[in-house]
Amino acid sequence: MSDRILFNAIQFLTVLVFAPLASGVLSRLKEIVQSKRGPSIWQPYRDLWKLFHKDEVVSDHASWIFRFTPYLVFVTPLFVALLIPVLTDYPLFFAFMGDMLGGGFVLALGGFFATLAAVDTANPYGPVGASRTRMVGFLAEPVFMIVFFTVSFVAGSTIPYIVQQRWGTPRANFVAPSHVLLMLAFLMLVLAEGGRIPVDNPTGHFELAMIDESKSLEYSGPGMALVKWGGHMKLFVLLCIFLNVLVTPWGLAHEQTLQAVLLAIPLVLLKIFGLLLVLVGIESSLSKLRLFRIAEFLGAAFVTSVAAMISRLFSF
Amino acid sequence: MTTAWLQDLNALAGGLFLLALFGLVATRQVQGCLRFFVALSALLAASAFLLSAIYGEWDLAVVGVVDIVTKVLLIPRLQRRVLHDEVFARREVTQVLNVPTALLGALGLAVAAYLLSQPLLRFIGGGTVASNLPVGIAGLLIGGLTAAVRREAVPLFLGLLAMENAAFFAGIGIAPRMPLLADVAIAFDVLILVFVVGVLTRAVQERTGTTEVGELTLLREEGAR
Amino acid sequence: MSTLVLVPAIPLATVLLSRLPLGRRFPSAVTLVAAGTDLALAVRLALRVVAAHEVVAIRDWVALDGFGATLLLLITFVATMAALFSGGYVATHEREPRRVRSYFMQFNLFIFALVLVPVLAEPALVWIAVEFTAVFSVLLVGFDRSQAALEAAWKYIALMFMGAAIALLGFFLLFWAQDLVGSGAPYSWSGLRAAAPAMPPTLTTAAFLLVLVGFGVKVGLVPMHTWLPDAHSQAPSPVCALLSGVKTTTALYVILRLGSLLPLAAMRAWMPAVGLLSVGVAAFLLLQVRDYKRLFAYSTVEHMGIMVTATGLGVTAGAHGAMLQMITHSLTKSFCFFAAGAALLAAGTREIAAVQGLIRTSPAAGAALLLGALAIGGAPPFAVFLSEFSIFRAGLVERQYVVTGLLVTFVTVAFFGILMHVNRMVFGRPVTPVGHVERRLPVTCLVTLVLAAIPVVALGVYEPSWVDALVRLAAADLLPGASP
Question: What is the SS3 assignment for C58?
Fold first, then answer.
């Protein structure tokens, strides 16, 4: 049992430590694709270090929500990291604390407070971005629900670890229509929730066009560092859910020994790197959608997920 | 490759066929519609090849080849030659149903198709492939929806061709021993149809300056005479 | 044996022949000769069928039985009349020789497709032939190149193809049903009839419903009839005669063939309801038309409904009546459209309100129109009266009082509607539309009107014995049971 607590701690630390690396690699790859050199992959760590050593400036009009939110945004992805299979394919100590729906609510909690904090200051761009984030959020809800229902219908459980064990028989993963369509729908969901192209431009500086980035406009110093780190971790956690639960359990530790778990770290990072290549491909070949077209994008994701559900429900 | 693998791949082709149908209803651009139609035809051919391996009927492989030649290669070229180039640069600015509503409608029809096919699926014996029939019926309904909500000539017609593709998709699953001559002749009939409709669309465009055939409403009883 | 193969081959060859630039009259002349030859061959084949019950060229692929022979006879007769009418009609309307040649090429292609339908015995090939009849007539419907004509042509082909795709699934289901029976019977009309009792009723009913909806679009059954008034009024009149007279009948032919595979109870349940809906809606829609070609088009919808209802009675007398109605309708409706074409040439407009006193301005056109209206409405002593009467009688004998009562009511409403509109046009003080040049009717048109009127009147009083035998043979094909 102490093993399990230890593995849980290692899992927690992996997400904490390696999330900025994933973001760094992603930005570097994007720049390389555009024939530029790009920043170093360790740049996000340097940014975080720099921000932690700066002073914080908080607006007079801001309430306790504004000061409280960075901590919440930092902590919620870590909570979710406890619930999902990051390194192991057997349930760990905190695995039964919450299921997929619980994980979704926890992430949504962070997003909710971030939205409130964006409205909290008197900055006009905050509410603009906040309302857009809410729109993307509520359009993405049905997709998430259908994915959740289909996956738990197939696996007979809603705990991510159990789902991962029953979902991934190798042949069905790559070929059954319900699996392929669900993966496609969830990928579109990851793009929407993670604020990537085609939903939002993460490197944009134009405030009127920002969706996700505008929530962190007002923060500075350690608050900004926590919000940024929380953002990196949220993306990392979404990628982990996608890869480890839906795609394949390759790389996850099967035996319950420390070596296996430590070996799983580079393997899982390698898997994430593969997915980052796919993401870079998507981001470099599509352009950002006009705001109201996002409804169509998420509508397409919804329809894909329902098609997956139909082909599973009526499967032969 | 075992039969189970092949059946799974065929089911995947069916799922992607359904997805391409959704794309056909939702795309605004004429070029996009054409690409989704080519995808539909390619998936039909893929299913034909897989089914020929599953059933052991080599006629179906010939059907797949004919399908690729006519629908994937010839039809887009034929359309480009007969119609003015600017028809293909068009997109629908205003629509009868906006995209999310059209997608939801298509989804409803897909569910209806699966429900409608349940009484027929009772007759599926051990060796018959069951995944093609519901997808085919869904395609008929969704193609009909496309033809009903589209105003531009080319997407409307592609919706109709998608209906025929879908009927064929269902057919190769349930009636693999259909005489080859019939299947080949059906493919060539579609080719002639595309040519004739191309000439007609060209005439409409030359007469009225637009290919928004949904806007043509002269013939009514209340009489715009 | 090879006569059967020759029948579609002749129009196909004529397509190429009419392309030849050998003078203004050449295309129409060669078309007329070809159509006449086909008519002669069809009569010969019909007589052979009466004697031997079927004519086979390629077993299970190209064969003719009673029903097919009747249809073939109707198609070739109307085609010959239309070819004769076209000669004068096209010459008056079109100046460019290229357009004239194009018209006759398309005309011959259309005839080829029409003739293919009864000659083929493999259902999937028959589907293709019916598709061909639609595809090859689209450009004829839009031949005028006016905006209204192009719109009618577009609606026509869109709905036709939609119906065809739906029916295709029905044919696949039928093949599957026969496969399940596993009796080794070939996939042909006779093979299907042999295997029908053993096929699962769910599958046959599903296939029939799909073909009913799909080909119902082509027949013009309500509520899929919306293209019919447009297409059948915008096309040139000889083409309208072919469209209304035989093309809708060929689609109905396929539906009735499939109806004969159903269990009798299902047939009695579905067909009268569908038929009565068409008759009723068409009869009432007929009352408010403004265009006399649309008037005749709605009348076609009504008659198609009558035929479906008659077959749906499920008895030999009903099927006999339906068959007779098919023959009389084709002959009479094509005559009506020839009359409408003559009226159009005389008056220059399709609007009912704009035409008056036609009997004085153009006696031939006026008389023909009046004759046509009386005939198609079902007045004695014309042919349609006899067929409708036999249907009513069959209904009463079967005690289907509701069905027969409704049928009589609707037919009366339609009769009233048609006569009301035509009376307004034919009698009264002559009115010359502004800008219209008085023209004499071309000779070919006059000759066609006379020739086409003969069977309309004659069949009302006398039925030759071979015709009677053919009709009995054909009617047996309409009902479930073993082939005669």
Answer: strand
